[in-house]
Amino acid sequence: MAMNGTTNGSTNGTTNGTTTNGTTTNGTTNGTTTNGATNGHLNGTSNGHVGEETPATKVANGQTPGNWVPCAEKPAYSRRKIRIACVGAGYSGLTLAHKIDHELKLNDVTDLVIYEKNSAVGGTWFENTYPGVACDIPSHAYGFLFEPNPNWSKFFSPGAEINEYIQRTAKKWNLERNIEFNSRVKETVWDDESGKWKIQVDQDGTLKHDEADILVNATGFLNKTNWPVIEGLADFKGKLVHTSKWDNEYDWTNKSVAVIGNGSSGIQCVTAMQPKVKKLVNFVRNPTWVSVNFCFDKTPDGLNFEYTEEQKNEFSSDPKAHFKHRRELEASVNGFFYGMYKDHPMQQGLKALCRQQMEERVQGIKDPEVVSRILDLDFNPGCRRLTPGEGYLEAFANDNAVMSFKPIERITEDGIRTVDGQEHKFDMIVCATGFDTTFIPSWDLVGRNGARLDERWKINPEAFFSVQVDTMPNYFVFNGPNPAVSHGSVLTQISWTCDYLLRWAKKIATEDIKSIDVKREAVDDYNVYAQEFLKRMVWSDGCHSWYKNGKGSGHVTGVYPGTILHLKDCLENIGGEHFNIDYRSKNRFHFLGNGESLHDKSGAGDLAYYMDTMNI
Ligand SMILES: Cc1cc2nc3c(=O)[nH]c(=O)nc-3n(C[C@H](O)[C@H](O)[C@H](O)COP(=O)(O)OP(=O)(O)OC[C@H]3O[C@@H](n4cnc5c(N)ncnc54)[C@H](O)[C@@H]3O)c2cc1C
Ligand SMILES: NC(=O)c1ccc[n+]([C@@H]2O[C@H](COP(=O)([O-])OP(=O)(O)OC[C@H]3O[C@@H](n4cnc5c(N)ncnc54)[C@H](OP(=O)(O)O)[C@@H]3O)[C@@H](O)[C@H]2O)c1
Q: Which segments does the entry list as coiled coil (predicted)?
């Protein structure tokens, strides 16, 4: 990240909604700059008036202008320890913990705490335990980068195995030492005076108060359960579950079951339950592409398969062979972006293949009306998040399974009534109705001057490269609005996001910075550009999708406007010029200290250390 050359964007002008005029305070203030307003500069005229003494000349002449500070008696870039509070211990929060403790070894700069509402790590994979839950990205491209797993059982592994792998990894690397479990963050309020987030955490009924220099939102983009708004839902006397809140104590075998929804969760659930239930009706509002598997060309016959013991042994004993396999899959998932590009040959190929496969898969379905609805797709594959579904359409060839396109009128005590007046009796209703994808945090987040994302994002969320948002100083989010999740490895981009935020953390800790706050105009420019680009992608087609915040058209909020490698370049190069930076002292260079580098050690250090890396 090109953070050097950062300008103090908060001088001269309108910052954070308040107008500041950069008035000089003659060095009599308390030594902190608030919103960059009072650092001794001359109202935006960087050179002052011709013939006037500059502040520097004044200092040379023994005076103390507004931006005067005494020299700090420590080397430049000395580190102060800053506290990072992270919310969530899924893949994102744990990657952050590993980066700090192991990969980047930043424990001398950061004091990390992770608050996790659950009793264990795992996030998505701890919470989603419905029948059939599995990843649909190849397992070898869906694990921590620092913990390759040679033993994945399948090309696409079951959810329980992923959860077990995450738990094991957290223990192996001692990542749980940073985590406070059963701790639900309730409120975080930015305090401009101290430059800290004031945090309230509900720990099993006891309220804990904490504060942190940096707040990280690692709560996932699919973590807030979306119960459907259907009349009578509370009246149902049978078993009611949501896929993300499964009740593993309940025995659903041989029962009559309704599954509402045909997203990824619904598709996996229906496929797994159909062979074991008495009756299954899948209530579907809109048809969807049931796609070929991701990376189908990397499997023997396009289908999921079990790795043999020989393969697993080879991956264990020959890390290079394992790495080769991982690298090949990583490139494949990253390249899937072009399958999402309107009219690209890869999109056309994908469409043809999916259609051909769907036509084959509906062969056994007896009702021609249902078949024609299933195949009546007037948007491109990928517009709704792609849903591979081995066995899903085939399930409806069985006498115990029906796909119903009849709109639901209401839920009754005994089941579901559709608008045609038909009553369907069920023992169990499964809501496979997805998640709240507004990106609004799951707690009360209050930023500078009382700014609130729940108000600002009522219509659509907008962030800066998915990771920051103006008015929320020192706040970072993994997979915020427009995340890079439609293709590519989520774990890889989570790792890059960690690198990005930790570079900021280091800068804050070593350059005496109080806060950084991305400029509103930068957020606006970025989002305008992003929406223009996204018109090229199938995600902007007309279809109901969480990629469009549940809407059928308009603003695309669920995917990144570019490839995953594009995001990497951006996260590495975004400049400080897009940020308002406030310092803890009234002179931004207070961190220059006593004129020494950390290497100098009062002259006793290795004073030619840089020669060690020279080519002799
Ligand atoms: C069923 C399912 C299958 C998926 N399959 C795939 C797949 O195959 N490939 C893929 O790339 N992606 C998949 N995803 C997306 C998946 O969510 C991400 O890949 C990834 O797991 C996200 O990790 P995370 O750590 O960012 O968030 P999560 O795993 O969602 O973790 C967030 C954590 O934050 C905690 N939390 C939330 N609010 C609070 C609070 N207020 N206080 C304290 N803690 C809080 C939660 O308890 C949770 O532990 C799937 C999602 C679902 C729901
Ligand atoms: N690895 C995997 O295989 C996997 C598995 C599960 C989830 N995921 C991830 O999680 C995301 C979410 O998947 P999801 O299936 O949980 O949710 P989803 O894709 O948002 O699907 C929700 C489904 O519920 C329907 N629905 C919502 N409200 C309804 C209502 N009031 N009445 C009737 N139907 C209603 C929707 O219908 P409409 O289409 O008409 O809106 C849609 O079919 C996926 O896109 C994917 O990123 C991945």
A: none
User: Which of 19-33, 37-51, 290-304, 334-348 has the least mean pLDDT?
Assistant: 19-33
What ligand is nearest to the CA atom of residue 125? 1
Q: Is the CB of 218 under 6 A from ligand 1?
A: yes
- 591 occurs within a structural domain: no
**Domain membership flag for residue 33:** yes
Domain assignment present for residue 505? The answer is yes
Q: Give the residue, out of 95, 96, 124, with the most ligand 1 atoms within 8 A of its beta carbon, to mutate for a pocket test.
A: 124
Provide the domain limits for residue 49. 1-71
3-state secondary structure of 114: strand
Same domain, 442 and 521: yes
Nearest atom in ligand 1 to 443's CA: 41
317 falls within a domain: no
Query: What is this structure's pTM?
Result: 0.93
What span, in angstroms and rounded, lies between the C-alpha atoms of 311 and 322?
A: 9
The three-state secondary structure class of 62 is: coil
Q: Beta-carbon neighbour count of residue 180 at 10 Å?
A: 15
The residue ranking higher by pLDDT, 46 or 537, is: 537
Query: 126 and 240 share a domain?
Result: no
Give Cα separations from 531 to 243, 539, 554 (angstroms): 32, 11, 9
CATH of the domain at 392: 3.50.50.60
